[in-house]
Specification:
Immunoglobulin-like, 5 domains, about 40% strand, rod-shaped
Length: about 700
């Protein structure tokens, strides 16, 4: 008996693959015997190899070696300059539960970022259980027990399709027949399990019995997720046989076939496929007493080769800063949306690595709850190689531009915009970047209450959701604000009789482009109600009443406490006097300022409506300057007003001008405010004639 067989007596489960006889299925003797042939090439100088796993790039190898004490432990080696390094123990895994456990059945994912293995650590589910460990920058992580798979029985030799959505492993398939159970208590079968959409492993089930017909020693699944390689031992001969089988759909398999012609008497086991090469372990036969070592050969049989896969490699980083992002990369079937694989980018460098079968379509989603979402449709039916971008840029903050404007006149508003997170109530204040536009920088992963405030307006808000899949980094939202208004009761009466008068009333907002009208027909008994903005200033004009002069005034709702406006219209009678508001001249000049034109145009309209009306335009000054100077200045100003009215189409015969200087002050000239009141223009009715209707 060879040394390997002697060692396995103390190692229980591990050497069932080389010590226990089994039934070799009848169908293996059929004509389907397409095996690879060729010379074996030894890999490395290691002896006592029980099993191993090699990455897709064929430069990193993790193996199970037999120690002098009879334990099996994990070691790893790296290829550099065509030479493999010394095998170094993976201490994080080997010493996880002390110095008595054995570890084996190692399976390394294609990208080399995760190890699956079985171990009989204390504290497990019982016997040998399946664990995994992730690659750290300089080590492997502490082993984690695989949930929902391990039982009190032995679960060994785990193998996973790329993306870790489907797994295979070895487990004893119990028989209900006590005789068979006693005879075949050591028979191991291949079981499989899939993860549900929540990521929970389903109840494992044995695969097709056409494969589970013999004494299985190990299991490996290729990157195509369809081809499995395994070792089987026949009851009729001691040498093991490497086999392969291909999945058609669900649990339907093609008939297994031998993988390698083995007429040497050596035990061959642990088949692994990388690139176009087949790796496996070769152990000694009875005569040569050789111990297990790794060999490889070029695969010549296309039927046994895995289906062609496309390897997608890239980097996930933050937009702008290029910092690495750890994100979930999930592969879906585009028709059924079934998850086919789950990957994760490396937290230290952002790199991801996944394999998909060529000549197929996939949907790939990239997610991190604190970052934006990315999705891609991959179509390898025509593409000869990778189609994913080399760099995927995610962002953790979005820019939200909020346009705040008047809901009635659609003009931008100056105000304040804030955002409050619904998760932790943190507050963000916007900065203004244009008229009425406010920019917020908001972290992803939360929803936000966006509130806008502006003086004279009711504040408003909306919910901005950033807790789901976000694909855009810039958003624009509109937030119109309703103006705060006050109901104002307007009464127009005769200045002498106090009787109601129907007239046209115009409110012209000085603060914004807004006007409010009351038509004469709307006046009920000389009264009407109008809604005015509570914090604005209005120029009020009343005109259009037959036989009455117009009225101009200023309504400042910031200062006005009541809600009533009473206007007394002056009847157009001889000697009736009306002061004109907002008639301004350049200092010491008779040049009319442009802001005076609106008031003078009211005079023009009044004269057009009353063609027989003759008025005097009188100008007055304050007491600054001499009497003669002010007299002359007032005469010039009065004439300037007459000239404007005449140039607007009113016959000169209807107008007279007169300057009174400072002889008729309204109030004492004892303050600047009073002097401003005394600097005025009035018109006085000289003749009424016949009023045009």
């Amino acid at each position: 008996m060879c040394i390997v067989i002697k060692t396995c007596i103390t190692m229980n489960l591990f050497f069932r693959r080389v010590c226990l006889p089994g039934l070799f299925s009848v169908f293996f003797c059929l004509e389907v015997f397409a095996a690879n042939t060729g010379a074996f090439e030894k890999v490395g100088i290691w002896e006592n190899v029980v099993d191993f796993s090699i990455n897709r790039s064929e430069n990193h190898l993790v193996m199970t070696l037999v120690t002098p004490e009879g334990r099996t432990l994990l070691y790893e080696s790296f290829l550099s300059d065509n030479r493999w390094s010394e095998a170094e123990p993976v201490e994080t895994i080997n010493r996880y539960a002390g110095d008595t456990a054995s570890v084996g059945g190692v399976f390394m994912t294609d990208n080399g970022q995760r190890l699956y293995f079985h171990a009989n650590y204390s504290g497990g589910a019982g016997g040998f259980d399946i664990y995994y460990s992730d690659r750290l920058p300089d080590d492997w992580s502490v082993p984690q027990l695989l949930d929902n798979i391990n039982t009190a029985d032995d679960e060994t030799f785990p193998a996973f399709i790329p993306g870790d959505e489907t797994m295979y492993f070895l487990k004893h398939q119990k028989s209900n027949d006590p005789k068979i159970e006693k005879k075949e208590a050591d028979r191991m079968s291949i079981y499989t399990s899939e993860r549900d959409p929540r990521g929970v492993w389903k109840e494992p089930q044995p695969i097709d019995n056409v494969i589970n017909a013999g004494y299985l020693q190990d299991i490996f699944v290729a990157s195509d997720a369809r081809t499995i390689y395994y070792t089987i031992r026949s009851e009729r001969k001691e040498a093991t046989q490497l086999m392969f089988a291909r999945l058609l759909w669900s649990n339907s398999w093609l008939l297994p076939a031998p993988l390698v012609e083995n007429g040497t008497g050596y035990d061959l086991f642990s088949p692994r496929c990388a690139g176009k090469r087949l790796y496996f372990v070769q152990s000694g036969n009875k005569k040569q007493m050789r111990q297990g070592h790794i060999v490889r050969m070029r695969m010549t049989d296309k039927e046994s080769m895995p289906l062609t896969v496309v390897t997608e490699k890239g980097r996930i980083q933050t937009l702008g800063s290029h910092k690495p992002v750890e994100a979930d990369v999930t592969v879906y079937n585009p028709t059924t949306l079934k998850i086919l694989g789950r990957y994760r980018s490396n937290q230290w460098n952002g790199n991801y690595d996944m394999a998909n079968v060529s000549d197929a379509q996939y949907i790939v989603d990239v997610r991190n709850p604190d970052y934006s979402f990315a999705s891609y449709l991959l179509d390898y039916r025509k593409a000869a190689g990778p189609v994913m971008p080399d760099v995927i840029e995610l962002f953790d903050t979005v820019q939200l531009s909020v346009s705040v404007y008047d809901s009635e006149i659609f003009r931008p508003l100056a105000g304040e915009v804030t955002a409050v997170s619904t998760t932790d109530r943190s507050t963000f204040r916007a900065r203004a970047h244009a008229d009425g536009k406010y920019l917020l920088a908001l972290p992803l992963g939360s929803d936000y209450e966006i509130t806008a405030k502006a003086a004279g307006f009711a504040e408003d808000e909306f919910l901005f959701k950033l807790g789901g899949d976000i694909v855009f980094s810039y958003f624009e939202r509109n937030l119109p604000l309703e103006p705060l208004k006050r109901d104002m009761e307007v009464s127009i009466v005769d200045a002498e009789t106090k009787m109601p008068v129907a007239a046209h009333v115009l409110f012209d907002n000085r603060n914004r482009e807004e006007t409010c009208h009351i038509a004469p027909a709307q006046m009920q008994g000389g009264h009407a109600t109008v809604r005015l903005r509570d914090s604005d200033v209005y120029d009020m004009t009343v005109d259009g009443a037959d036989g009455y002069a117009f009225h101009n005034g200023v309504i400042d709702l910031k200062k006005q406490t009541g809600n009533k406006i009473v206007v007394e219209l002056v009847p157009l009678k001889i000697n009736a006097s009306l002061q004109l508001y907002n008639i301004n001249f350049a200092t010491g000049s008779a040049d009319i300022m442009p802001e005076s034109y609106a008031e003078l145009d009211h005079v023009v309209r009044l004269m057009r409506d009353n063609l027989e009306l003759i008025i005097e335009i009188s100008a007055h000054t304050d007491d600054v300057g001499s009497v003669s100077y002010n007299k002359i200045l007032s005469e010039r100003r009065a004439q300037s007003v007459v000239d404007y009215i005449v140039e607007s189409g009113i016959p000169s015969r209807q107008l007279q001008s007169k300057g009174y200087g400072m002889s008729k002050p309204l109030v004492p000239n004892d303050s600047e405010e009073n002097r401003a009141r005394n600097r005025r223009v009035e018109f006085v009715v000289l003749e009424t004639g016949q009023t045009q209707q």
